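Problem: given the chain below (319 residues), write out its structure.
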Amino acid sequence: MSELHKFLFDGLPVRGMLVRLTEGWRELLSRREPGQEYPPELRDLLGQMSAAAVLMQANIKFNGALVLQIFGDGPVKLAVAEAQPDLSFRATAKCVGELAPGADLPAMLNVHGQGRCAITLDPKDKFPGQQPYQGVVPLHGDHREPLYKLSEVLEHYMLQSEQLDTRLVLAANGDIAAGLLIQRLPVEGEGNLEGKRNEDDIGLSEGFNRVAILAGTLTAEELLTLDADTILRRLFWEETVTRFEPQAPHFACTCSRERVSQMLRGLGRDEADSVLAERGEIEIGCDFCGRHYRFDAVDVGALFTPAGRQPDGAEGTLQ
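Solution.
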């Protein structure tokens, strides 16, 4: 089963998480229609994004959707992964060109240096006027050197937006998407005295660096093939690690007929009637789960008729 393990390093301000998405990841891929399967390079990127989104959502415990997006100027125009507070996840991508075998992140999304990574936090219960928070970073480093891995982009984002040292290892294939996150926790009073650290602060930084170096020795093959117990034991056998009860991420889509109805209302009656006249019905498919929603003339009429003026039974057409 898919699982997420949280752990702390005793005596160090360092936390870690390990996620392995198995049946949920396979279900996500199975929702693609025959002939519309993702190329292996894009599939693996989406898997890494899914694992990363689950890790970040579990890390901040946000009451709302965490949406990880990468968009750029290559064959892949957009890739999205979303994780909810219950660690349900979904992902999709739009590819408009051919991908060369073994294409890396720059070749897929950052051909001319215009690629961006955005992380959006969309609260579940918004206050009046409250807008989602979004942070955006380019797909290159501080000196405009290209970043070839999603893990490098997200490490850069964490350092820029949260000032937290982070080490990420991500991997995916057609059967599993997995990730390991190691993060240095802020220490109260750190950064005082004009940015100078005392000996204790330096020792804590060295502790994080040691753990991060160990995490960096984990290969993609090991991350994809070894179970959580084996990975943690092999990496951190010299550390005292406190582990917590594992959680179970799973695939789920938040699309619904009501949400699609709201989208159609946003298009307006004239646009909806135009599609009906051309096709006889309106069919909208969800890019995330593949589910199709169909609206005939009666359905569309009900959408744009005030509730108090609907004839008997009209409300039932939307069920």
